[in-house]
Amino acid sequence: RERAKGDRKMVYSAHVGAPSGAPSVEAVVCCGRKDPQVAAFGHGGVFVEGAFFYKPRPKARDRYENERRFLELICCSCESGEPLRAFVPNFYGEVERDGAWFFKMDDLLHAFSLRGRHIADLKMGLRTFAESEAQSAKPRADLFERMERMEERLGSSVLTDAERASRSMTKARWMALRDSLSSTSALGFRIDALLTPRAHLTAFDSRLFHTRARADVIAALRSFFPRRGECEGGSHPRQAAAALLARVRELRGALTRSAVFSRHELIGTTLLLVADETCRAGAWMIDFGVTREAPAPLQHDVPWVPGNREDGYLLGLASLTEMLQELVAADEWD
Q1: Which of 74, 248, 258, 295 has a CA 20 to 30 Å removed from the CA of 198?
Q2: What is the DSSP annotation of 101-161?
Q3: What is the spatial distance between Cα 272 and Cα 145, in angstroms, rounded to a whole number?
Q4: How many Å apart are CA 233 and CA 6, to the nearest integer?
Q5: What is the rounded average pLDDT of the residues 18-46?
């Protein structure tokens, strides 16, 4: 049984955008069905029912308020014509299911083939930590142990002598190191997870956490698309790359026109890429738990220095656009 929160039962019918009826960016997992996409993208406790996706309400108060507020700003802006409504999942408010509260959204993955589904999780921006987190000095043993395991796969030393002596590191150091080891700091985005019929890669159990060089990022991005032998109906993987390139260009145009985007600092957000064996493709923005309103409009295309609140989102989108252009123009596939 589903119950809306108080009298806040709101239905936001945001225009989803191409492809018609395509899946929701958040709807990449289905715990109730033990879908392997849960492990791929790190969303626990979610489930899909019919055409809807249910995401557990964030436990941290600030993340809960940040995400709810941003979704409402985008999806409630029917009269203002907010450009980002085509790039953010439809949001139906908060509902209670069996004593737990969830954000209810469209399951945008519903229109893509389950058998031949290809999904990529891209973390956007030049940094994945808020400025307040950069000031954290609390030592964390768990983060040290995770980085120690990652260091073994990396094959080189990144931990300091002081960190080894205390067997701990701060969250600020952890996140800055993660950003510098990946393509975040250099290119303005990184690939955090890939799920295709051929592979299931996450940042912590694969090469993705240290995929930094531009050529390596392009290779990883290319592996997201279906191979020629996987495409159906005479379609070609170049069609999926071209469709995604068009979608990303549309997103950039929407971002530059959006007053909501200019007023918000987007940290740790995901750009979800989806394609299938028919070579349809789409992209949506999700994960707004660390998205905060800025005291003044942001440019989003300049470097971050402490205090300016810039996130570099448009720089990452520009890097992605250039890579997709190269893939569309590539002579060989497979």
Answers
A1: 248
A2: EEEEEE-GGGGS-STT-EEEEEEESS-SS-TTGGG---EEHHHHHHHHHHHHHHTS--S-H
A3: 29
A4: 49
A5: 41
Identify whether the C-beta of residue 38 lies closer than 8 Å to the C-beta of residue 109. no
User: Is residue 147 within 8 Å of 177, Cβ to Cβ?
Assistant: yes
Buried b (16+ CB within 10 A) or exposed e, 74-113: bbebeeeebbbbbbbbbbbbbbeeeeeebbbbbbbbbbbe
User: Tokens 């290779």 — which residue?
Assistant: 219
Instruction: Provide the greatest CA pair distance for the chain.
Output: 59
Residue percentage of the chain with pLDDT more than 90: 58
What type of residue sits at position 111?
A: A
* Residue in the block written with tokens 């940290």: 267
Task: State how far Cα 15 lies from the chain centre.
Answer: 19
pTM (2 decimals)? 0.85
SS3 state at 241: helix
Tokens of 264: 């918000």
Q: Are 93 and 104 in contact (CB under 8 A)?
A: yes
